[in-house]
Amino acid sequence: MRARSSLHAVLGTLASCLGAASTDVVTAGNLFDHDEFWPYRAALTEAWQPPGRDQRLPAGTDGVLIRVEPGQVARIDFARDGKYEVPIAKTDLVEKANRIQRGELAKPTPNFVNAFAMKVVDPASDPPTSLRPEQLAEHHRFLCVFADVSHESFAGLANALRPLAKRSDVEIMLFPQGEHSNAEIVKRLRASDLLVPFVFEHLSEPYTRTLLREGTPIPNVMLVTDEGRVLYQDAWQPGAIAKLESALDTGSSNK
After folding, report:
1. What is the CA radius of gyration of the chain?
2. Torsion of CA 146, 52, 91, 143, to 10 degrees
3. What is the CATH number of the domain that holds 190?
4. How many domains does the chain have?
5. Is the domain of 199 the same as that of 73?
6. Is position 160 within any domain?
7. Do 97 and 115 sit in the same domain of this protein?
8. In a domain, 7, yes or no
9. 66: domain range?
């Protein structure tokens, strides 16, 4: 009986210690690495002056977190107020991340998966249908490809990506550029033997502007986690495939 009581005491002390340590795990300095605790939305905790804007955004301005980036900044979509890289210290991101870590704030779905649920078409299905949220949630890394399926360079891009499309540790997701109907995109992907999901044509352009900074060259590739953390990004060129494979194998970031 005494041994059992002692064991319970030890286990209780261990649980308390682990709990105390875990509640302090997230800081502005390590939030980039703890993307599992990124909240879906973020708000300013003080007024902030965006670059190139005449007026400050007031405290409480709320937006969708696109991603946390190195240097203790976060890219946030404030809807009509714009998309900006905001210092983490001026937001409630750390506070919300710690609440998620402690189980006080629910986060049922990874951020990137949540953002694209029911917005992606499977060209391999007949007829083509949108992927269900649980289908997207099966993947932990996504290779976002921003390219025009009608451009002469797409054939080479498709050939290079085809081996990656067979990997089980990544899901390729096309963000079609240019003006093409969903039916045309399906037709071109099938002709290229690259049956990878793509974002609905009417959503691709706004999501491209969300994920890529203004002036980013196209075609472009971006490898992200299911939370949206960037592991690799660069303008597409033939040599990029080796770098992509390396990023997939190591999970490291080039940013």
Report:
1. 21
2. 10
3. 3.40.30.10
4. 2
5. no
6. yes
7. no
8. no
9. 24-101
Do 116 and 136 form a contact (C-beta atoms < 8 A)? Answer: yes
Q: Specify the amino acid at residue 11.
A: L
What's the one-letter identity of residue 19? Answer: G
**What is the value of pTM for the model shown?**
0.86
Helix (H, G, I), strand (E, B) or coil at 45: coil
- From first to last of its 255 residues, the chain has per-residue pLDDT tens of 444 444 344 434 443 344 434 446 899 999 999 999 999 999 999 999 999 888 999 999 999 999 999 999 999 999 999 999 999 999 999 999 999 999 999 999 999 999 999 999 999 998 989 998 899 999 999 999 999 999 999 999 999 999 999 999 999 999 999 999 999 999 999 999 999 999 999 999 999 999 999 999 999 999 999 999 999 999 998 788 888 888 888 865 544
Give the number of residues written for the chain.
Answer: 255
- Alpha-carbon distance 212 to 177, whole Å? 13
- Residues sharing a CB contact under 8 Å with residue 90, sequence separation 6 or more, in sequence order: 44, 45, 46, 48
- 61 within a domain of the structure (yes/no): yes
Q: Are residues 89 and 123 in the same domain?
A: no
What element of type H or E holds 206? helix 201-211
CB contact set of 238 (below 8 Å; sequence gap of 6+): 156, 160
**Judgement on whether residues 140 and 83 belong to the same structural domain of the protein:** no
